[in-house]
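Lecture notes, unit on protein representations.

Consider one protein chain, 84 amino acids long.
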Amino acid sequence: MKNDYEILKSRLSWLKFHQIPIEIVTTTGNFVRGYIRKFDDCSLLLDESGTNVRSEFKTINYSAIESVKNSDPIVVKGDLSVVF
């Protein structure tokens, strides 16, 4: 189990560092999408809005995750920055 967590921690770290949004389907069928902000041994904090407002983060336990995949970037309302 420790090896499984080390692999997961490595992937989460990479996704967080590169600001890659993810889509998670939970075991109850709920769908959430956002950026990983923090994670520990049991769960991760997901920022659905992409605004980094801590009071709006969702906690997702690893045991509740059915599937995970990369997502399209989240557009923050009013964000007019353009990448050239």
